[in-house]
Design goal:
Elements (H helix, E strand, L loop, with lengths): L2 E8 H7 L6 E6 L2 E10 L6 E3 L1 H6 L9 E5 L4 E5 L1 E5 L14 H12 L5 E5 L4 E2 L4 E9 L5 E9 L3 E4 L4 H4 L2 H11 L5 E3 L6 H8 L12 E3 L2 H10 L2 E6 L9 E5 L5 E6 L3 E6 L2 H12 L4 E5 L5 E2 L2 E11 L5 E10 L14 E3 L1 H9 L2 H26 L5 E8 L5 E7 L12 H19 L2
Parallel strand pairs: 1-3, 2-6, 7-8, 7-12, 12-13
Antiparallel strand pairs: 1-4, 2-3, 5-6, 9-10, 10-11, 14-19, 15-16, 15-19, 16-17, 17-18, 20-21, 21-22, 21-24, 22-23, 24-25
Helix pairs in contact: 3-11
Length: 445
């Protein structure tokens, strides 16, 4: 590899990094590497400088925003972080919806401009594998009402934050192949790699004895499993294993005469009744289609104003790689519904308000929060350890039963976040900022 440009490092920084004097050194930005001249000398007011040739070679946009670390094992200088946010498309609609993917990507891009390093959005079609480069996009605000995506050529990143927005898009061959190829790159780290399958999550979590008591019994939906579960529980939920947003859920309740009452959630609530497991499966076949389903023990959830609720926790890793609660709020089901998802008509309330009404005593409320936070930490750690995948954030839904005991309802690896909030704007903004801080940690900075 030919020598390209120069990097100047102050004696103070070189000593702090343990960087030995040498004529040349490899310099890496993201997945691009160049051999450069190394000059350790006294610098006025700067810890390091890059020659214009090296800046151009490594596709650096703003050299002063990059941090520097020394990889002693590889004898390589690493400048960064370079963070890429992968999406399947780059939406640019005139109408601005704060809950949309467009709003999320714009928010991430704007936050990225204020962090050290360089942050860009990209899609699989933006990558040039031959040169280890990618056409990345950042959002430029042109006025209070208008903006546009600006593209530049970047190195493939140190870290990829996956924001592919749907299971259908994630299943496309181009996206799957791109992910696999990125994950095999030597210097690149990838987090939140895929949506979660409910049956696989159950199998991963139930192996942890700390979690056993908090997870409703769950089985793969078959005739035999359904009959067995109906013998044990008065209420069951049938859920698509790969479902999201509360869609496709079927509630089954057995009355004192043994009649099974069904409520199916798809573009509204559809009610019917059957006599047995065979009729239930026949009745719901058209609704379920060929999708894989689970059957899950129904929990008698606590209610607020007559409606059941659950607690959505956006659980995130911080700039030290440690799990913490990013956001916590209550989702109250619409009147007459048992599904609390906001996309199914649920509404948001604060945990402070609901817990004060239900549990009253401050010490008891504090204990409920502690119990929920500990449960989330155990869920996240067990899921990561057993799946051997890297997650930077999870959406964890916890249901409180009528005795105040917490139950895991669902885990989502790609929680949707809104840029506007009925509560704290600071909390909302931090839920977007934290994954980028975690990406910085993953990159080594």
């Amino acid at each position: 590899m030919k020598v390209t440009g120069s990097i100047y490092i102050s004696k103070t920084l070189a000593n702090r990094l343990g960087l030995p004097a040498q004529d040349e050194i490899m310099v890496r930005v993201g997945s691009m590497i160049a051999r450069s001249k190394l000059l350790i000398q006294k610098l006025e007011g700067r810890s390091y400088m890059l020659s214009p040739v090296l800046v151009h070679e490594l596709l650096i946009k703003k050299p002063r925003r990059l941090k520097l670390r020394y990889d002693q094992k590889a004898n390589m200088i690493h400048l960064g972080p370079t963070i890429g946010i992968i999406s399947s498309f780059l939406p640019n609609r005139e109408e601005f919806d704060p809950t949309s993917m467009q709003a999320e990507l714009i928010c991430l891009s704007n936050i990225g401009k204020k962090l050290p390093g360089q942050v860009y959005i990209f899609t699989p079609g933006c990558i040039n594998w031959a040169s280890n480069t990618v056409r990345g996009y950042v959002y430029r605000q042109l006025s209070s009402e208008r903006g546009m995506w600006i593209s530049q050529l970047y190195p493939l990143p140190d870290v990829v934050y996956d924001r592919i927005p749907s299971r259908g898009l994630e299943a496309k061959n181009t996206i799957r192949n791109t992910k696999h190829r990125l994950c095999r790159m030597p210097y690149l780290k990838y987090f939140n790699p895929s949506f979660l399958n409910k049956w696989e999550v159950y199998q991963l979590l139930i192996t942890d004895p700390r979690l056993y008591a908090y997870i409703p019994e769950t089985q793969h939906l078959t005739h035999a499993n359904l009959e067995a579960m109906l013998e044990k529980y008065d209420t069951l939920y049938l859920k698509p294993a790969n479902g999201s947003l509360g869609k496709g859920i079927i509630k089954v309740r057995r009355d004192e005469k043994g009649i099974l009452h069904l409520i199916a959630h798809r573009k509204g609530r559809h009610r019917s009744q059957v006599n047995n497991a065979s009729d239930l499966l026949k009745k719901t076949k058209v609704f379920r289609g060929d999708r894989s389903y689970i059957v899950q023990q129904g929990i008698k959830l606590a209610t607020y104003q007559g409606s059941p609720f659950d607690i959505r926790i956006v659980f995130q890793k911080n700039n030290k790689g440690e799990w913490q609660v990013g956001k916590k709020f209550v989702r109250v089901a619409a009147k007459g519904s048992s599904v609390a998802n906001l996309s199914s008509g649920g509404r948001v309330e604060t945990t402070k308000k609901i817990f004060k009404i239900l549990y009253k005593a401050p010490a008891l409320i504090e204990d409920k929060h502690r119990q929920i936070n500990e449960l989330c930490k155990n869920i996240a750690n067990t899921l990561e350890n057993n799946s051997q995948a890297n997650y930077g954030e999870l959406g964890i839904d916890i249901g409180m039963d009528q005795n105040g005991f917490p139950w895991l309802i669902e885990v989502n690896s790609k929680p949707r976040k809104t840029t506007e909030s009925e509560h704290s704007q600071g909390i909302a903004r931090n839920t977007f900022k934290r994954p980028l801080e975690y990406a910085t940690f993953l990159a080594g900075f």
